[in-house]
Each structure stands twice: as C-alpha cells, then as structure tokens.
Amino acid sequence: MRFSDINGNADTLKALSGMISSGRIPHALMFIEPDGGPAFSVAMAYLQRLYCHSGTAEDSCGECPSCNRVGKLIHPDIHFVFPTTSGQSSVSLMPQFRALALENPRFTEAELGAALGIDSKSSLIPVAEAREVLSQLSLSALEGGWRSVVIYLPEKMNQEAANRLLKAIEEPEPQTEFILITHSPEKVLQTVASRCQRLQLGAPVKAPEFDQPELLDDLMDAIVRRDLYDALEAGERISALPSRESAKAFCKYASDAMRNVFLAQQKMTLAQTVSGNAAAWAPKLHKSFARGALAALDNANRMVERNVNMKIIFADLANKLYRING
Length: 326
What we know:
Order of helices and strands: HEHHEHHHEHEHEHHHHHH
Structural class: alpha/beta
CATH architecture of the largest domain: 3-Layer(aba) Sandwich
Helix content: 40-55%
CATH superfamily of the largest domain: P-loop containing nucleotide triphosphate hydrolases
Number of helices: 14
Strand content: 5-15%
Number of strands: 5
CATH class of the largest domain: Alpha Beta
Number of domains: 2
Largest sheet: 5 strands, parallel
Strand order of the largest sheet: 2-3-4-1-5
C-alpha cells in the first residue's frame, strides 16, 4: 500500500510523508476514524514508506523487499494487536486477520469479528497481549531498522493491558513506533491517548436518525446550567418517547453528540453530524464528562433493550449526567 493508492485525506498523507522525510517521527500515532474508515490503509502506507529502502521523499517505491513484506503484512518487525476472545490471541489469529485486511483494508469491526469467528461485541485486548508486545519489543529488530506495533481498537484494551503498555509508549526504545487505530477515542485510556499524536481520518459520519433533537438540547442545557430539576424533567419527556426503538435512537444520537463534545474539548475537528450543540456545550462541561456520559448512555441503551421501565431509565440517566458534571 502506497500513499498514492489512497483516495482522500490528502493533507494527512502529506503530513505523514513529511514526518518521515524530515526525520521528525512521533513515537506514537493515533488514527481516529469511523468504523470502516481508511485508517488501516493509511497506517500501512505510512509504515511502507517508513521501511522502504528505495522510495522518494513523498512515497514508498512499492517494489523493494521491505515494501513487499509490509504490503503482504508479513514484515517481521511489524506486530499487530487486535481484540480477541478468551483463549485466543492476535498471533494465533493473524492468518485470518491478514486475509481480511488484504482483501478489504476498510473492514468494519463486525467484519473482523466474523473473519476471526468471534463475537466482536464481547472481544477485548487482554493483558496477555500487552505482555507479548513487550516481549517482542525487548528483542532487536530482525532487519536492523524500525520496530512497529499496530494496535487496532485500543479502546478494547482492559485497564491492566493499557497500563502495561503505557510505559513503553511513554518511554519507547529508539526506532520504535506505535500506531493506534480507534473508532472511539473517548474510550481510550487517557494516559495512553495523551502520549499519541492524533490524526482524524475518514469521511463525515452520518448522524443517527432521531427526529426530536430538542430533547437532547433541553437535557444538556439543564446539565450545563447545573439544574437537576430541569434535567429530571427533560428525562421525563425522553421517557415518553413512543417506542423502545425511538428510545434507543435517542441513546445513539446522544452518544454521537458526546463524541463530538470529547473532540471539541480536545480541540480536534468535529465529526460532521447534526447531533447536538457540542461546540457550545464542551467548554462548560467537566473534562471527563464525555467519557462518563457515554458509559451512562451505553447502560441506558442496554436497559431499554432489557425492557426496564422507561421512566426509571431516563430519570437515572439525567441524574447520572448531572453528577458527572459535578
């Protein structure tokens, strides 16, 4: 994969090429994309340029032995980590991962789960994967150059795994490169994310369909004002939505807005959706608000699916959001 093979994201590709040609290579990059976006292709084009022995300042040659190995995902100094289920590992499932990525580098989380034969919703990156990465990085590069680790969905690392990798990302060995590809940057351990140079990729995300955006506006305006009574009253109106499907649509819509709040607080480009007034809310909310709100909305969505009383669900949601911004 060469930079010239990728459509779109021209500014990002130019910036990545410039990092390599100038020698100012960050030790950790975090690509942020919607599910099914171009980040894996961009990451591999970046690594191919980094490892290439015969390329130009702008791109890899695509023909040398290093380009060939990177392009086939078989370079011995590039390690891949991705979510699995109990008893499995990225190393053991690498043939399936490689086959999927070579056929369709813009694969989705669900497509990866299907290719690996696992439930993508319950998959995670356990501490054993972190130990394996650290073990690999303790060895010299087999080809005497860079060593790289590509972590797909770092938001699925459990706390212990993330903490294990943190020191390696904070104080990397020379010529060691971490590349993280995330769909939910707000769920990545903050101490890990803060050590990475972040790059937004991909087409604008289509906002979830929800035809009563004023419900979220009223709830968030009350949270910003620190008015619990109005927040609970907004929760009461949300609970009166006509169906559980519309309640789930609200949760998805609100989650999309909270991701934009997170991006706004990080001074990053907002996803081009119509979900909420993130830019206005962000400076008035606690820095940890988006993370806590997303967890609360995930829980509310699960409770809706389990047929819990709607008034209880959304009164609890309003109360949690009020306390998160305390």
